[in-house]
Amino acid sequence: MIEISRNITFGQYINNGSALARMDPRTKLLCAVLLIILFSFLSSFIAFAICLLFCALLQRTSRIPTGYVLRSFKPFLGFLAFIFCIEVLFYTSATQNKTLLWHWAFLNISWEGITRSAMTIVRVLFLYYITSMLLFATSLVDLTDGMEALLSPLQKIGIPANAFVMVLVIAFKFVPIFVTEVERLMKAQAARGVRFDQGNFIQRTTKLAPLLVPLFISGFKRAETLSVAMEARCYGGRPGWRRSKRRELHFDRFDATVLGLTLSLCLITVVINFVSPI
Amino acid sequence: MLEVQNVTFNYSAEGEQDVPPALRDITLTIAEGETVAIIGQNGSGKSTLAKTLAAILKPNSGTVHVDGIPTTVRGEDSWTIRQRVGIVFQNPDDQLVANTVIDDIAFGPENLGLPRPEIEERVQEAMALLNLEAYAPIAINELSVGQKQRVAIAGVLAMRPRYLLLDEPTTMISGQTARNLLATVFRLSRERGITVIHITHFMHEVTNFQRLIVMDEGKVIMDDTPTNIFARVAELQAMGLDVPMVTHLGQRLRARGWTNLPEVVLSTAQLKEGLSHAL
Amino acid sequence: MLFELKNVYHTYMRGTPFAVDSLRGLSLSIPAGQTTALVGPTKAGKSTVVDMLAGLIKPAAGTLLFEGDDVFASSFDIERIRSSVGIVFQSPEAQIFEDTVGKDVSFGPRRKKVPLAESRRLVKEALEAVGLDYEDFRSRYTYALSGGQKRRVAIAGVLALQPKVIVFDEPSAGLDPRGRRELLELITRLKQQQNLSIVYVSSGLDDVIGLADIIYILDQGRLALQGTPREILTHAAELASLDIALPEATQIAVTLRDILPGIRTDVLSLDELEEEIIKNATVGAQSTIDKAG
């Protein structure tokens, strides 16, 4: 009942030595961003079908068990189904009356509504997939190094992108620590009579109160100790301070190929999007 | 050399009453290369003293000098102090920053802005000192507490400090792992000449140190060799501390006729040696 | 018999790439009215057992009996366990979240909709059981308490639910000698004054050697040794190989074995150790003593 760790498959790096895992993180991040923009923009089912092929290829290259990836979709499929229904029922547009199926007061169901809402859902699924795959196939260190490298132009013009990345690194590092703490707190409060798995949704949410106070207190204490420890290792703002990096990122042929492939996909699907009827 | 001169420190803000000072008029000097243990109950001020030496806390009155630089200095010199005085805390989770072992050890040198080859050299050196080479690419979350603590020490050593402060580093580690950690620390002191200052509340950890400082309620009560301090059992007990069982045993056996045993037995090894001569 | 584990198996994160076996066929019994210790190195499965005793997780295989009934049979009401088992974790002060002592200790009874007068009585009894005066402490702010006082308040919070058994999960971890002493005194007091069964989980023998009636040594999810404190200490070599910290007196006896081969390792105090050494050394070495004396 209280085994939270079991269900967190989002964002866990799987180190299987695949070509995907070994790529330069800058390429992966760039491609992910390109694909996210692409998916948000497409509205043709043929284009989506081509994207699906691309995803299948991605899945093969990653060598991650498909079942495992699909299981990560489970938690929010219900939510998506709910959103789909709401969107269909409340869909309004100038052209929808041509395809109206059913109508009651301000609610209506039309083919147009169904197709458009389906498209939104498909987009969300693609976005979730790409983001999950990015996180499954890229180690934390790679992610943050890649981000820092890509954001370095910002750093040069005075925006503290490096500090932002450091914040992310530390946040990620604390996730498992806080998960353990939450688990322990839940057990301790359960031992005092709080039943987290009972009650309806509202009741269950209010039961979180005895978790939040201790967590915040603990969080602040840790933050204080950690910042002192970091300063003791000379991390900190002083005029003209610049960190150097031990790791080097290498952009090679495979990266170029993947980048090229992604760009081609973008071009092809955009063209299809404009040209195709559906 | 670390010089503490009439230092007083109070955690409470101005005007808050009934909070006794954490440090009261402390004066002491620690020379380079010494191995010093500081012992006391919780609340005796030992951690506060460590943080003052590391320039994390500034004294309310009095001065602390690290190699002649006052800890209240600002600017470039304050970072010199931070590099020279390394500090390791109780909980490694609250000190380690990066995802993998090698990246965390590199954190310090990276902060110093060192060129890549030098960072690599220092990281390899620190890992070798703590036997962590095999763990380099491992995620820190997967390590045991003892291993994490070694990573924390390696991370500090990569800064090449002159002084190493260990603030109750074995609190979350037990038995053999804790002993191994201490043995490593001593080896570092011998091989590298690093000044080691070990803060603890476990009497059995202090026996190999050259110098022992006993603190109580913000003051330094005793400052001597472990052997001389362990002889003052009644005074220690009055402060809520005690000597290890083996020391008590030594006293009792001497009283029962084993007078060839040393007056103050510091360790079981010593006891064994003393007994074997008599048998 | 309060609890019985029969050939229990458990795996964490079953079915994921991160699955790990925590219990592999563990069998033990926890008698009512006594103090049982579960000792083992990390990853021995101790936390898993605690979770099971609290009714929080189900074993993957094997049976768990509570007062003779199968806990995971469909006819069993899990509330029976949950209201009978109180758990005190490491750093219990970390679970305090209310602003006053009275509110925090009464949290449990309030959850169970206990009437106010009864709740007050439970809080009073719980605070007195941990050595805190009810009138003095009930309206004190929790953030202003010392670490030791917070710990007592947290334990009182568990006692307020009047459990039949309290499980202490490595409660002395991270405490300084005085804190540890106070904690053990508190538990001894509870043991003597309350009609409670106690289960004490730890990674070393120091705490439990004077406290427990029966000790189970766990290793990698299985039972390695069991017995009274004295019986356990006779297996000093095996305990050391399992990386379990021995009590000081035993450690000294083990080290002296090289020169005093007959010395017993099941010594529970300094006095016993002293006598053992004298006994073993005098036999055959009387003349040396006379010379030295």
Descriptive account of the structure:
The complex is a heterotrimer of chains A (278), B (279) and C (293). Chain A has 278 residues and is mostly helical. Chain A is 68% helix and 3% strand. Chain A has one domain (4-275). Chain A has helices at 19-22, 25-41, 45-62, 66-71, 74-90, 111-137, 140-156, 161-190, 201-206, 209-232, 253-275, and strands at residues 100-104, 107-110. Chain A has a two-stranded antiparallel sheet with strand order 1-2. Chain B has 279 residues and is of the alpha/beta class. Chain B has 10 helices and 10 strands. A 6-stranded mixed sheet of chain B has the order 6-7-8-3-9-10, with helices on both faces. In chain B, strands 2-1-4-5 form a 4-stranded antiparallel sheet, with helices on one face. In chain B, α3 (101-111) packs across α4. By secondary structure, chain C is of the alpha/beta class. Chain C has one domain (3-246): Rossmann fold. Chain C is built from 13 helices and 10 strands. Chain C is globular, with a radius of gyration of 22 Å. The model of chain C has no long low-confidence stretch (mean pLDDT 87). At the B-C interface, α9 and α10 of B face α8, α11, α12 and α13 of C.
